[in-house]
Amino acid sequence: MKQELIERIGIDKSILKGFALVSADYELLQKMKGNIRNLDSPATDIKTPIDTAANGTETREIIINDKFYGLLKIKVDCENKHITSSLQLSATNGRNNIQNLSAAEYKERLQNAINHFKEVYRLELDFSGAIISQLELNTTFRLQDDFSKYCKAIKLLMALAANTHYRQQKLDIWLNPTTKTEETFTTSNTSTQLKAYNKGQQLRDIGFSFSDNNILRIEYTLLRVTNKSLRNPYELTDEKLKQHFIKCFQRDVVKPYKHWKKQNKQEVAELLKRYMEQYHYWVSPFIRRCRDENDSRLLIPLLFDVQVVHDILMDLLKGDSHRSRRIKNIMAHFNEESTLEGNIDRAEEILKFATRVAS
Question: What is the mean pLDDT of residues 5-12?
Answer without folding.
Answer: 94
